[in-house]
């Protein structure tokens, strides 16, 4: 159940109550594709840096170790020793990202595994069954994420198929949640809005899926090649069409600036690989913009990554030491940068929630954006 606590313009401060605990929104979900955050980050670390939701990937866990293995181990929460909410994406994004390894049909998608080449079929029912085996808190509906440069005719046909797939997902989840052997019989289902950069297709699709009374709604197919301005234009058109009493999730987004702008447009949930991926390459976030710790100017810099930051890296280590670790290819350097970046994102969301509650989100957004641009 989603509880709206406070509005500040379109920005929303809320809570989503789930079987695995309450999620304070707006929230950034920390991405652990294969049931672990890349960069040697443990679930104890996630607790320490203020993570609320961990996100794992249905397709990747189906391929390895196999969702049946995870089910036999008691579900994803027991398998990875994490007692807070988990969201699993549906495998639909792999329809986009593995374009050279798949064929899309009405019944579903035929893949070749990116690991060993074996044939895999995934449709709406299969996606729901895999996610039920994983026993995540929130399951995402199976959809197609069309390319942002696809033509209008293709996108219209793709969106119509995604709507038909959503109806099948909803029916299959209802069936699975009634089975005695299902681990999480309270699994939630979020539907996904698609439509490329065509506002009219997006709005029509938003209205169609809003009528299906789901537990939450995502905006997919953005941050896949279109400009930030196009993304914001689509959000301006779509978010008002989605139910006010349900959470809104912007998939795969993004930079701190993207998050600040999307919150201002009514978005509640975010995820992105940026903080962990950038951290593994020595790029770290601060309130004054992003730093590249490989730069020679940090060789003798005794300061933490960011003054006043309470993350595990900044409480103890200097920029100079972390730079040395990165240059020496020591895994600890990568790990410390990932921990800092995830803490930065999680703490940013705390500040966003506080600003909305205080009724000064616009001023907070503008001040934070100025800082991130180094002004």
TrEMBL record:
Indicate the segments forming the tRNA-guanine(15) transglycosylase-like domain, all copies: 11-370
List the Gene3D superfamilies hit by this protein, alphabetically: Queuine tRNA-ribosyltransferase-like
Q: Where does Zn(2+) bind?
A: 309, 311, 314, 340
Q: Could you list this entry's UniProt keywords, alphabetically sorted.
A: Glycosyltransferase, Metal-binding, Queuosine biosynthesis, Transferase, tRNA processing, Zinc
Recorded hits in Pfam families, A to Z, give:
TGT
List of residues binding substrate: 89-93, 143, 194, 221
Entry keyword annotation includes Nucleotide-binding: no
Annotated spans, RNA binding: 252-258
What are its cofactors? Zn(2+)
Presence of the UniProt keyword ATP-binding in the record: no
Example GO molecular function term?
glycosyltransferase activity
Cofactor binding summary note: Binds 1 zinc ion per subunit.
HAMAP family noted in UniProt = Q_tRNA_Tgt
Role noted for this protein = Catalyzes the base-exchange of a guanine (G) residue with the queuine precursor 7-aminomethyl-7-deazaguanine (PreQ1) at position 34 (anticodon wobble position) in tRNAs with GU(N) anticodons (tRNA-Asp, -Asn, -His and -Tyr). Catalysis occurs through a double-displacement mechanism. The nucleophile active site attacks the C1' of nucleotide 34 to detach the guanine base from the RNA, forming a covalent enzyme-RNA intermediate. The proton acceptor active site deprotonates the incoming PreQ1, allowing a nucleophilic attack on the C1' of the ribose to form the product.
The record's family statement is:
Belongs to the queuine tRNA-ribosyltransferase family.
> By what name is this protein known?
Queuine tRNA-ribosyltransferase
GN (gene name): tgt
């Amino acid at each position: 159940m989603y509880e709206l606590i406070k509005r500040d313009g379109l920005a929303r401060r809320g809570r989503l109550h789930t079987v695995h605990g309450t999620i304070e929104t707006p929230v950034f979900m920390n991405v652990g594709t294969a049931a672990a955050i890349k960069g040697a980050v443990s679930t104890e670390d996630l607790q320490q840096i203020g993570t609320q939701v961990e996100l794992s990937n249905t397709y990747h866990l189906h391929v390895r170790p196999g969702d049946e293995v995870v089910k036999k181990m008691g579900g994803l929460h027991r398998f990875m020793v994490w007692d807070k909410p988990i969201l699993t994406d549906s495998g639909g994004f792999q329809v986009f990202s593995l374009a050279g390894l798949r064929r899309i049909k009405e019944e579903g998608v035929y893949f070749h595994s990116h690991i060993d080449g074996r044939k895999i079929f995934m449709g709406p029912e299969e996606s729901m069954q895999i996610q039920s085996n994983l026993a995540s808190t929130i399951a995402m509906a199976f959809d197609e994420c069309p390319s942002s440069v696809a033509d209008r005719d293709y996108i219209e046909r793709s969106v119509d198929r995604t709507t038909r797939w959503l109806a099948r997902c909803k029916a299959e989840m209802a069936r699975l949640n009634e089975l005695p052997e299902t681990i999480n019989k309270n699994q939630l289902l979020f539907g996904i809005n698609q439509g490329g950069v065509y506002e009219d297709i997006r709005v029509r699709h938003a209205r169609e899926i809003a009528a299906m009374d789901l537990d939450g709604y995502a905006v997919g197919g953005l941050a896949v090649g279109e400009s930030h301005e196009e993304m914001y234009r689509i959000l301006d058109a779509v978010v008002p069409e989605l139910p006010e009493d349900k959470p809104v999730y912007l998939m795969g987004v993004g930079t701190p600036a993207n998050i600040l702008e999307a919150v201002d447009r009514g978005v509640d949930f975010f995820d992105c690989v940026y903080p962990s991926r950038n951290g593994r390459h020595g790029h770290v976030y601060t309130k004054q913009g992003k730093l590249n710790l490989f730069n020679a100017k940090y060789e003798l810099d005794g300061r933490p990554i960011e003054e006043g930051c309470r993350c595990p890296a900044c409480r103890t280590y200097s920029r100079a030491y972390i730079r040395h670790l990165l240059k020496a290819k020591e895994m600890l350097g990568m790990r410390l940068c990932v921990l800092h970046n995830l803490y930065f994102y999680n703490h940013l969301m705390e500040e966003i929630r506080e600003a909305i509650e205080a009724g000064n989100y616009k001023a907070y957004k503008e001040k934070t954006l100025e800082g991130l641009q180094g002004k």
